[in-house]
């Protein structure tokens, strides 16, 4: 049990890919549980989105309700991120250590992700777009879309590096090779 707790609470040492994937699986399960709980409080993704009714004369009200639902979902995502950021950071840094990397790229990724979640939760960078026929929907602005796209690419890079590439063979500056059995793993 101590090995599982330290997997999420300490960033020192190294872990192998298998341990990382098991840790990610644990975070996914926890994230789903948190999302369900947040959904009960109206902070889930797409909670409260109005049903689209083309005969509705007040499309502006539908658009505003959609924007409010998107902001509520963004707040839910921000809360979920805040709860899981520290364990995810520790898990990813240990994996980066296995590749003899300090993990600063993980810290940068987490900081940018937090900033973009805050921007979305506050409704900044969103604008109402007319889809024709009086249908207006909130959409991210071009700069926000570019930032989210860049963050997604950075996230894919970290996924490949952490989840698919082998660590440094033998000891490195962060500890013994976890595949040699000398380092603690679950």
What does this structure look like?
InterPro entries: DUF805. By secondary structure, the protein is mainly alpha-helical. The chain is elongated. It has one domain. A two-stranded antiparallel sheet has the order 1-2. The longest helix is centred in the middle third of the chain and has 40 residues, at 59-98. The chain is built from five helices and two strands, in the order ααααββα. Helix 2 (17-40) packs antiparallel against helix 3 (59-98), helix 3 runs antiparallel to helix 4 (104-121) and helix 4 packs antiparallel against helix 5 (142-163).
Give the spatial strand order of the biggest sheet.
Answer: 1-2
**SSE succession:** HHHHEEH
Radius of gyration: 20 Å
Q: What class do helices, strands and sheet pairing give?
A: mainly alpha
- Total domain units: 1
Strand count, sense and barrel status of the largest sheet are: 2 strands, antiparallel
Number of strands: 2
- What proportion strand? 5-15%
What oligomerization state is this entry in? single chain
How many helices in DSSP terms?
Answer: 5
Residues in helix, %: 55-70%
Compute the separation of the termini in Å: 9 Å
Query: What are the segments in which pLDDT stays under 50 over at least 5 consecutive residues?
Result: none
Keywords: Membrane, Transmembrane, Transmembrane helix
InterPro entries: DUF805 (IPR008523)
Transmembrane segments: 20-45, 65-86, 106-126, 146-165
Question: What are the salient characteristics of this protein?
Answer:
mainly alpha; 5 helices; two-stranded antiparallel sheet; DUF805; single chain; 5% strand
């Amino acid at each position: 049990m101590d090995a599982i707790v330290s997997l999420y609470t300490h960033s020192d040492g190294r872990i192998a890919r298998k341990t990382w994937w098991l840790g990610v699986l644990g975070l996914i399960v926890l994230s789903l549980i948190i999302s369900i709980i947040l959904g009960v409080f109206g902070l889930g993704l797409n909670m409260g989105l109005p049903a689209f009714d083309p005969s509705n004369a007040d499309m502006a009200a539908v658009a505003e309700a959609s924007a409010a639902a998107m902001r509520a979902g963004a707040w839910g995502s921000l809360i979920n991120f805040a709860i899981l950021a520290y364990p995810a950071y520790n898990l990813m840094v240990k994996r980066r250590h296995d590749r003899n990397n300090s993990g600063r790229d993980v810290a940068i990724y987490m900081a940018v992700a937090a900033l973009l979640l805050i921007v979305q939760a506050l409704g900044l960078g969103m604008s109402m777009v007319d889809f024709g026929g009086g249908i207006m929907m909130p959409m991210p602005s071009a700069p926000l879309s570019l930032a989210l796209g860049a963050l997604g690419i950075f996230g894919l890079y970290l996924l490949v590096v952490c989840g698919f590439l082998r660590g440094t063979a033998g000891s490195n500056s962060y500890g013994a090779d976890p595949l040699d059995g000398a380092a603690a793993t679950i």
